[in-house]
Specification:
Layout lengths: L1 E7 L2 E5 L4 E3 L4 E2 L3 E5 L5 E7 L7 E4 L2 E3 L2 H17 L5 E7 L9 H16 L6 H11 L3 H4 L4 E4 L10 E3 L6 E6 L9 H11 L3 H21 L2 H20 L10 H15 L4 E5 L5 E5 L4 H8 L4 E5 L6 E6 L2
Parallel strand pairs: 7-9
Antiparallel strand pairs: 1-6, 1-16, 2-5, 3-4, 5-10, 6-9, 7-8, 10-11, 12-14, 12-15, 13-14
The structure holds (3R)-3-hydroxy-3-methyl-5-(phosphonooxy)pentanoic acid.
Amino acid sequence: MTHAIARAHPNIALVKYWGKRDASANLPATGSLSMTLDVFPTTTTVTVDPVLARDLLVLGGEERDGVPRERVERFLDLVRAASGSAAHARVETVNTVPSAAGLASSASGFAALAGAAAAAYGLDLDERGLSRLARRGSGSASRSVIPGFAVWHAGTDDETSFAEQVPAPDLAMVVTMVDCREKAVSSREAMRRTVLTSPFYPAWVSSTRQSLESALSACAAGDVERLGRIAETNALRMHAVIQACDPPLRYLSPASVEIFDRIAALRERGIGAYATADAGPNVVVLTRPEDATTVAAEIAGLAETVTAHPGPGLQVLERVPR
Ligand code: PMV
């Protein structure tokens, strides 16, 4: 038996990934840009055990069957195909971020699984290889392999679609916990529905390509105001394209909208703060580190907050036998 332990953190996109060009290889319609956080790590242990008849998933101490286990099995099939091993594995995952609440647990989850599975099955992958592998589990996981700020290149095929680090200004993110219950519609299903039914989808794709170019140049120039404005606009455009789906779909709640308004009011008072939200009601506010306390105080009456800074990339903590 070989086992390996890996840890990864969630990331929050400033320019979002929303829509696939190729669902089986998880190739995105556009590139995206994110910050990997230093909070809410996921730690995953993969134990390769030739005695097992199928892969087992233990999530937060509880054995899970159904869709989550099947997703892990499909992912491990890729690792087995690359390693030449047919053995099954026991996967134990501990998330510290509320699962499936639009706080990117699939990103930290599949990044940690990619690291632990690659090590346990003896695949020798560099950062790019790990990012490509993590992408197969969940698109946004490609970015959680990377420390700090990451651009995920859309690419044209499996080989060219990976994330890598980009320089960026010093920033913090105030994560608000509006509602951490499991969301009713997964981002996978919602993306599919958007591509198939939202009449605004082509405009979303073309405007996001432009936003990514501008955001990367704002990053390189250290321009927090421009980067923040692009991030907030891009997030609202993503929610707009989602809200144009049939059957209808909306992730933002009245409390989320209230937080967007409070952040706009803070800007009126001269504080550089910008709101974003993934596929869920929890708003994340981008700001300078020195303004994070002011932002958190503004939201205190509405939701609990956690302040995050740029975090580490994927770490393999242990491999036995080495
Ligand atoms: O990686 P997925 O399939 O969980 O999709 C994530 C999509 C968003 O979080 C909404 C946007 C993003 O770029 O992370």
